[in-house]
Amino acid sequence: MSETTPRILSPHLDSFTSRTVRLVGKVVQLRGDQATIDCAGNMTAHLNRDSHLTVGNAVEIVGKVNPDLSVRVLRATDLGREGSVDFDAVNAVVDATHRYKEIFYAD
Amino acid sequence: MGDNYGYQGYSNANYGGQNANNNGGGFMSGSQQGSQDSPNGQKVYGQESLRPVTIKQILDATQAHSDAEFKIDGSEVTQVSLVGQISTISPRATNIVYKIDDGTGTLEIQQWINSDMEEGATKPIALEGQYLHVWGRIKGLQNKRTVSSQMLRPVADFNEVTYHLLEATAIHLYFTRGPPEGATVKAEGGNGMFVDNNGGGNVGAAQGQAAGKKLPAKTSAIARKVYHLLQEAPQNNEGLHVQNIASQLGMQANDVFKAGDELLGDGVIYTTVDDETWAVLEY
């Protein structure tokens, strides 16, 4: 099992199918064990029992990308109200992750 | 300061003996970590640094031999700071081991417990799933990297995580590509404007990321002009006299003196045969 979990955004999902990744986004909608999360674009997350998400809050998801580009959640961390996380900085980290991947992840 | 340096030499000379002590047992080195003020546990006291890193950088760090300092991007690291999400916590009799994951890898962090610590300090201070900010030292034991922490605390604001990763990237780029481009461009601009015929040569020098030749960012334009003239002048031990500089640059001797004071203050030039003759300090 790969121990690195690259940080990505919704548009990158198709390059990371069947890999474990990290996404930070805003919870848009909760529907049973499914959630819609906005990480520079909406994506669908299949939650596990331990996930406690709140609509409108920021969340960090560690999960595996399915072939249909939804994400099976392994761990979800609530990051508080939407305004408490600087999404520009989060996106900058994603950009740095792939631009200078030598310090972030191996292919 | 002077005393300090004298002592470092002494402490380095005894390095072998101390190191044997350090590797003698986990608890031993741990207790030395705990009392950071004591110089006994320190190896390269003069080059202490605290560098923000990702876990992948720690796992990729190189070590010339088992007693050598770890190197990241070719430069020695003594202490590091890192941020990661806790996957497991294992409290033990003498230490607490936190396994953390920052997305770039996983690493065990050892927090040593001193018998003289207060009651509350011997219990884990964070929960699994929380982010932890750790300051400590890289240890390599049987091909396994760990970090022995001097201090750690849970992260309350997620922005600290993003900030740390961006800072680690910035420092990585500083070591691999040299100082930020903005500063280099500025220095080049100065060359181009004031010392036309030397422009070409200086551009090369500035891009060669030679840290020793870089003037502090606050250096005035006049001081830069004088510095570059000194740099380009035919090299001899004497350097150039103030009158000579003034006539070559077509400046008032007064202004040259001011520029000289600035450069002398920054320690980039030095006086040679008398107070009015300067040469570039090369190192």
From TrEMBL, chain A:
Q: For this chain's UniProt record, which GO biological process terms are given?
A: base-excision repair; DNA replication; double-strand break repair via homologous recombination; mismatch repair; nucleotide-excision repair
Q: Which UniProt keywords apply?
A: Nucleus
Q: Name any one GO molecular function.
A: single-stranded DNA binding
Coiled-coil boundaries: none
Record has Repeat as a keyword:
no
One GO cellular-component annotation of the UniProt record comes to: site of double-strand break
Q: Where in the cell is it found?
A: Nucleus
Which InterPro entries does the record cross-reference, listed alphabetically? Answer: NA-bd_OB-fold (IPR012340), Rfa2 (IPR013970)
Quick check: keyword Nucleus in the entry? yes
Q: Name one Pfam family in it.
A: Rep_fac-A_3
Its protein name is Nucleic acid-binding protein
UniProtKB/TrEMBL annotation, chain B:
Q: Which UniProt keywords apply?
A: DNA replication, DNA-binding, Nucleus
GO cellular component, as recorded: chromosome, telomeric region; DNA replication factor A complex; RNA polymerase I complex; site of double-strand break
- What GO terms describe the biological role, i.e. biological process, of this protein? DNA replication; double-strand break repair via homologous recombination; nucleotide-excision repair
Q: Where is the composition biased (Low complexity)?
A: 29-42
- Name one molecular function that GO assigns to this entry: single-stranded DNA binding
Question: What is this protein identified as?
Answer: Nucleic acid-binding protein
Q: Where does the protein principally reside?
A: nucleus
A Pfam family reported for this protein in Swiss-Prot or TrEMBL: RPA_C
Residue ranges occupied by any Replication protein A C-terminal domain in the UniProt entry: 172-276
- What family does the Swiss-Prot or TrEMBL record give for this protein? Belongs to the replication factor A protein 2 family.
Q: Where in the cell is it found?
A: Nucleus
Q: Does the keyword Transmembrane helix apply?
A: no
InterPro entries documented for this protein = NA-bd_OB-fold, RFA2-like, Rfa2/RPA32, RPA_C, WH-like_DNA-bd_sf, WH_DNA-bd_sf
Domain of life of the organism in this record? Eukaryota
